[in-house]
Design brief:
By secondary structure, the chain is of the alpha+beta class. The protein has helices at 2-39, 76-84, 213-219, 296-309, 317-334, 374-379, 391-407, 417-440, and strands at residues 43-52, 56-65, 87-95, 98-99, 105-106, 109-115, 133-139, 145-151, 154-157, 163-166, 169-175, 180-193, 196-210, 223-237, 242-257, 263-277, 280-295, 338-348, 351-361, 381-390, 445-446, 450-458, 461-464, 467-469. The strands form 2 sheets. It has a 22-stranded antiparallel β-sheet that branches. It has a two-stranded antiparallel sheet with strand order 4-5. A hairpin with a 2-residue loop joins strand 22 (450-458) and strand 23 (461-464).
C-alpha cells in the first residue's frame, strides 16, 4: 500500500505547490515584457492592477506611443493623438499543472491577452461582446507553447459614401523556446469610395523562426523563413473605371546566421504572379535581393543602441548616430558585405526581361581619413551584372518609360486617342534610335531577337561588354 500511497502523495504535493512557482514565473514574464517595450524607441508600457492568487494572475497592460517633446510641454492635440494610439491589454492567466476555466486541461500555464478596443466602436462596428483582438497561449507540460490569435469581422462606414470591410483574422502557432512557427490568414479586405473600389482576397502570413525570441531580440539576425501573400487584388478607379488586377502578390524573406553568430544574411523577394492594368500586362514580375556577410557583432551593437536611443535627447540623436557609425563601420566592412539584385525579371506579351547585379566591398582593413574619398571606395568595390531580354520586351519597357515622361505634361490630359497613339509611336522611335546608337558604341550587344549588356567594375574601372568606360574617379 505504501508503494502506491507515497507516489500519489508526491504527485499531489507537486500539483499543489507548482501553481505558486508558475505564478512567480508569470509575474516575471509580465514585468520583462513591459521592460522590453519600454526599451523600444518610441513606445511606452506600464503594468497595473497586478493580482496573483494560487491559481490565477490578472493584470492590465498599457502600451502607447512616446513622442519626443524637444524640451517643450506637450500640447492638447499631441496628447489626444497619443491617446488615440494607446492600447489597453487585459491579461488573464491560469497556473498549472492542472488548468481550469477557459484554459482547462493539463499544462504549466494558460493565458489570454485581450484588447477590447471599446473606443474604436466610435468609428467601427463589430460583434458586441467580442474583443477587437485576442491572443491565447497554453504552455504544455513538455515545455511547448501552443498559441492562437484572432480578430473579428469589422466594418467602418465613413463620410462621403466610403466604407471599409475586414473579414476577420485567425492565426495559430507553436513555440518551444528554440523555434517559433506561425501561420495566419484573412479572407478579404474591401474598401469603397467615390471613384474607387478595392478588394484583396486570401491574405496570409507564415513564419518559421529557428531561434528563441530572446536571442532574436538581442542578436537581430537568426535563421528564419517568412512570407506575406495576397492571392487576389483588384483596384478600380476613376470615372472610366480603370481596373488593375494582381494575382498572387508576395513578399518573402529568408534570414540566416552562421554557427558562430559572426555573419549573417537576408534574402528578400517582391513579386506578383500576374499583373494587368490598362494596356499593360505581365507575369512572373519580381525583384529578388540579397544582403550577405552582415556583421553579427554590429547587428548586436545596433540592437543595444536602438534600445538606448529611447533615452537620448532628440537634439543629440544625430551626433549619437554618427558616433555609432564611426565606431562600427570598419567592423561592418571587414566582413566584405554584399548587396545583390539576383533577379529583376518580368514576362510580358512582347517577351522576357531578366537582369541581375552583384556588388561588394572587399579588402578594407582601415578607413580613410576622409570618408567621402570616392577613390578609396572605388578601389575596394566589386560589381558584375547583366541586363538582358527579348528585343520587343526591352523596347516596350524603355518606350513606356519615355512615354510616361512625355505624359507628365499637364496638357497631355487633354490629348485625343489619336494624339496619345502618336506619343506612343514617338516614344518607340526614340527608344529604337537610342538602342541602335548604344549598339554601335558597343554598350549593347544586339542579335536578331535579343539585347544584352554585361557590366563589370573592378580595380576602379568600369567595363561594359568588355569595353572600358572612362569615369571621373581617382585611379580609374
Amino acid at each position: 500500500m505504501k508503494k502506491i500511497v507515497l507516489p500519489l502523495v508526491a504527485v499531489a504535493a507537486v500539483a499543489g505547490i507548482a501553481p505558486k512557482f508558475v505564478a512567480t514565473q508569470v509575474n516575471t514574464s509580465l514585468n520583462g515584457f513591459v521592460a522590453h517595450i519600454n526599451n523600444m524607441p518610441g513606445y511606452k508600457a506600464s503594468l497595473s492592477n497586478l493580482e496573483t492568487t494560487w491559481f490565477t494572475t490578472t493584470a492590465d497592460i498599457k502600451v502607447s506611443l512616446e513622442l519626443p517633446n524637444y524640451g517643450q510641454p506637450m500640447d492638447e492635440q499631441a496628447k489626444q493623438a497619443l491617446e488615440a494610439f494607446t492600447v489597453n491589454i487585459d491579461f488573464d492567466a491560469t497556473h498549472g499543472p492542472v488548468l481550469f476555466g477557459q484554459h482547462s486541461g493539463l499544462g504549466w500555464s494558460g493565458w489570454t491577452a485581450t484588447v477590447n478596443g471599446d473606443k474604436l466602436r466610435e468609428h467601427a462596428q463589430w460583434q458586441e461582446g467580442t474583443p477587437i483582438y485576442q491572443l491565447t497561449s497554453i504552455l504544455g507540460l513538455a515545455g511547448t507553447h501552443r498559441f492562437a490569435d484572432q480578430m473579428p469581422q469589422v466594418t467602418i462606414d465613413g463620410d462621403n459614401k466610403s466604407s471599409l470591410n475586414f473579414s476577420g483574422y485567425e492565426g495559430a502557432g507553436t513555440y518551444n523556446g528554440k523555434a517559433l512557427i506561425y501561420a495566419g490568414q484573412a479572407e478579404s479586405v474591401t474598401a469603397q469610395e467615390p471613384l474607387l473600389d478595392m478588394k484583396a482576397s486570401s491574405l496570409s502570413f507564415d513564419i518559421d523562426m529557428q531561434s528563441s525570441i530572446q536571442d532574436a531580440l538581442e542578436q537581430g539576425l537568426y535563421d528564419s523563413v517568412s512570407k506575406l501573400n495576397v492571392a487576389d487584388f483588384v483596384l478600380t478607379t476613376g470615372e472610366n473605371s480603370e481596373t488593375t488586377t494582381v494575382k498572387n502578390a508576395y513578399l518573402s524573406a529568408v534570414t540566416n546566421v552562421d554557427e558562430t553568430l559572426s555573419v549573417g544574411g537576408i534574402a528578400m523577394s517582391y513579386g506578383v504572379e500576374k499583373l494587368s492594368t490598362g494596356s499593360f500586362s505581365g507575369e512572373d514580375m519580381a525583384l529578388d535581393m540579397e544582403f550577405n556577410n552582415l556583421s553579427g557583432e554590429v547587428l548586436r551593437a545596433w540592437q543595444k543602441f536602438a534600445e538606448e536611443m529611447n533615452k537620448v535627447d532628440p537634439q543629440h540623436l544625430p551626433v549619437k548616430m554618427q558616433e555609432f557609425g564611426q565606431q562600427h563601420l570598419l567592423t561592418l566592412l571587414k566582413e566584405q558585405p554584399q548587396i545583390n539584385i539576383t533577379s529583376l525579371r518580368a514576362t510580358l506579351p512582347q517577351g522576357k526581361v531578366d537582369s541581375n547585379i552583384y556588388t561588394s566591398l572587399v579588402g578594407i582593413d582601415a578607413l580613410p581619413d576622409n570618408l567621402q574619398d570616392i577613390g578609396f571606395w572605388a578601389s575596394h568595390a566589386l560589381m558584375n551584372g547583366k541586363i538582358a531580354g527579348d528585343k520587343a520586351a526591352i523596347e516596350f519597357v524603355a518606350a513606356e518609360m519615355i512615354k510616361q515622361q512625355m505624359l507628365a505634361d499637364p496638357q497631355a490630359r487633354e490629348m485625343t486617342p489619336e494624339q496619345l497613339e502618336q506619343i506612343s509611336q514617338m516614344a518607340l522611335q526614340q527608344t529604337q534610335g537610342m538602342l541602335g546608337m548604344l549598339t554601335e558604341q558597343g554598350m549593347v550587344i544586339a542579335t536578331e531577337t535579343n539585347y544584352e549588356s554585361v557590366l563589370k567594375f573592378e580595380n576602379s574601372q568600369l567595363t561594359v561588354n568588355g569595353k572600358v568606360i572612362p569615369l571621373p574617379i581617382p585611379g580609374a
